[in-house]
Amino acid sequence: xxQSNSTKRxxxxxxxxxxxxFSSRILGLVREQAIAAVFGASGVTDAFTIAYRIPNMLxxxxxxxxxxxxxxxxxxxxxxxxxxxxxxxxxxMAALLALITGVISLLLIVYAKEVVLLFTNEVxxxxxxxxxxxIGLVRIMAPFLVLISLAALFMGTLNTLKIFFxxxxxxxxxxxxxxxxxxxxxxxxKFWGYHPVYSLGVxxxxxxxxxxxxxxxxxxxxxxxxxxxxxLISKDSKVVLKRVGIGTIGIAATQINVxxxxxxxxSTVVGAVSWLxxxxxxxxxxxxxxxxxxxxxxxxxxxEAWKNSEKEKAINYLSTSYFLSFLTIVPAMALLFxxxxxxxxxxFERGAFDGHDTAMTYQAxxxxxxxxxxxxxxxxxxxTFFALDRPKIPVKISIFSIFCNIxxxxxxxxxxxxxxxxxGTSLSMILNSVLQAVFLRNLLDISxxxxxxxxxxxxxxxxxxxxxxxxxxxxxxxxxEDPFFTKALxxxxxxxxxxxxxxxxxxxxxxxxxxLRVVRRK
Length: 522
Prior knowledge:
This protein is an all-alpha fold. It contains 23 helices and no strands.
């Protein structure tokens, strides 16, 4: 199979996921706007952020992290041999996931106070009401872990069956549910004697249920409804659990990192957790739309080719995904870097979120953006090791990178402040992706030219010129004191000018034909 054909397949599936994910990310920004407008970067927003981070961290293991990477290649291999056994494996894993996450959720409810104290320090806990709200939110949102884990399992299955749009659109429904709760519930909760911030917890639960249930009709339509042979523990489910066990070590290291950085953030200044969170949301916008879509497509196609012993085809898929990641992420990084403060101002600065919050969020965002291209590569590289049956490698690399990040943050945060946590995340991701590339080169027996192509250099040069051009355009067009719609229009014109510059520079550097091919296929 040639590079052209692999490009077409990866583009087609990535585009479907990207369109759906774009809708979700836009609604995610609206959700964050609603939170910022209603609650601001306040103590109660910090309380929700910390409470939501606890089940969200566990989701990294049971949904978007080790479990997905372990399940998709195994499920693909079983389905290629015996579709009936694959159906049994799906529902065996669904039962196991529900059982394991259900027990963990129950423990979170019972020991919510102890868990919250683990994630916070005496500065945060000095406000008894804020501490009590955080504990209550943890108890409300604990079962979210069950719902979102099953949703991720169904999404992985549908992607393997080459169904990409609906599963990728399901998180958009989660955001819609949360937005509705943010605007409809606070006054009612206040009337009933509860703090309005609990509306966020209710929204998380409702959104998680919708995100899971909406995927079931497609599974049934494809003939993948509950059916046998059903064995809770089978040979194939043991393979998945073994790989998840290996991944758990890496996830545990990641969560230790999250705990330490959260404690460091709460020890700096009130609002730091929220500033970092809002900045990370904007940072994740291009990652969620572009990198996650490309990575999800790559995992499905790479796994299928590798399980069929088609090494050249698998490497072509990985090469295509690597190139597309740079082609799309570099201009996104350039535009967001040039328009960082304007983006925060337009998206968040209203209601309880003021100019000071914009300035602080900007400090975090610009340091997160340093690692954006490598974050995209990490999303592609890490699951590839699971398809290669080498799950221990990314885990060891993650542990080492996280260890370096913890040392960096613990040493520098007391000296320089909360923004060091964003820079540490970026430097850690750069180290992680570089080490993964080294190991992939050896495993796949590919040359360094696979990673250091002239085409990649052209993209980087185009990105630098795009940044400079967009920055100049925004300084000329954008005025913070203008009316909102005028600012939004000038913002869009600045971004469009930068995007045109990116395309023109690529054309001048000789990549016009490939760029046109990508646009036509999309």
